[in-house]
Amino acid sequence: MVTPTNTFHFGTAEIWTKYSELQHYTDAKGLKGILESQTLFATHFRDLNDSTELKLLPDRISKFIQPSIKKIIRDKTKDSFNLKRLLRKQGGLEKASTDIAKNFSTIRSQAAFSSIGNIPPMTSPFITSFCGYDDGTYEFAHGLLSQWRGYAQGGFAIIFDTRKLWELCQNETERYAYTTIMLDEVVYDDDEAKFDEEVRPFLKIIERETEAHLNGEELPKLSTEESAGIIAQFARLKHRAFREEHEVRIAACPITPERYDWMVADKQDVGEYLVKRLRQSATDASEKTQIVLFDDPPNSKLPIKRIIVGPQVNQTEATHFARSLAEKFNIQIVKSETPLVQW
After folding, report:
1. SS3 for 210?
2. Does pTM surpass 0.85?
């Protein structure tokens, strides 16, 4: 049984100690919507612009953990004739360790994101992205050129106080049913040291699964906290080509409305948590599935420190537009000094 035991993941360290501010890029319509609603949208991972989102991790994890699994198998079979015989039946050390590694990464992701019989999927990640830069850098003050290029018709960077944004994420878990929600850096897929650090906590789970595999037993069930930890990692890996963005993201994994409704119908205890209902975005040619973040309490205020007006033909006009929206919130408006480049 999966109950809404909310797990708030801090990541490897308090992210605000590295980045005091985070930048969220948007166009004029997005800026108006964010300021007027004082909420953010998180987009379903399948609808993100990067087509590799959440597809990289199963293969990456299986390659990383195979050496650890091989060592576990050697230790377990060293003094056991029966286990050695079972290992031979399973094709030997190399094949068994490869199979277990693949099973861990694929089965666990399917268990989280897919239906099991008549039981709906438990969760699905929704992402809101930011860029983080060190205080005093050019990007910190004026934004990132590649992001401005993405908003050539007139873009803005909304600058958030990182610590206060983290606190809003924490408030979300006190009201809504999540498996996990976190605010942390992404892990780029070529960062071996960082990836090693992130996956290490799963080795105890991997050891249990290796023993079960060798003995021909069913995979052990994971606790809600263990499942949430694995799901969080699936939402954090990103292709190395995007490294310059220094991405920090909110990865919100609410219990799906279908799973929540199934739990209620099955008379399971869901506590006093509310379920996050989905919405379809009408802002793009192709619809996107999203959830609304920070909509409770309804009059909460986003921790916006300032707004940077990006390089554009009518930057002065865009500055007046941003100032008219932000005036009642006492938000500073500044112009980026990045030159306008026609592309």
Report:
1. helix
2. no
